[in-house]
Design goal:
This protein has two helices and five strands.
Length: 94
């Protein structure tokens, strides 16, 4: 990813554009973004988990033709709060 920072930023923006509608479809909203981090809020933990599953499926589809060493990997740490929040960070494959 560091070898092509501009390309990485472009791909990340494309992923965000593709994913944002799934946030809304699960009743969620973007609370804030910082660099490659995103904090999402959902009405329930069920909605948050359903979104996380849908997100991972969408990323697998989007990356199906991308070489493994060029794929962006995402993690979804859930924060037990009311309402539930999920913070997403980009984890680059080494």
């Amino acid at each position: 990813m560091g070898a092509d920072e501009a390309g990485t930023a472009r791909v990340l923006r494309g992923h965000r554009t593709a994913v944002d509608p799934t946030v809304a479809s699960h009743g969620g909203r973007v609370v804030k973004t910082t660099g490659d981090d995103v904090l999402l809020e959902f009405p329930s933990i069920v909605a948050a988990v359903e979104h996380a599953v849908a997100f991972q499926k969408l990323m697998a589809e989007r990356d199906s033709d991308v070489p493994e060493d060029r794929r962006m990997l995402f993690r979804w740490p859930a924060q037990p709060s009311v309402p539930p929040r999920i913070g997403a960070g980009m984890s680059t494959a080494s």
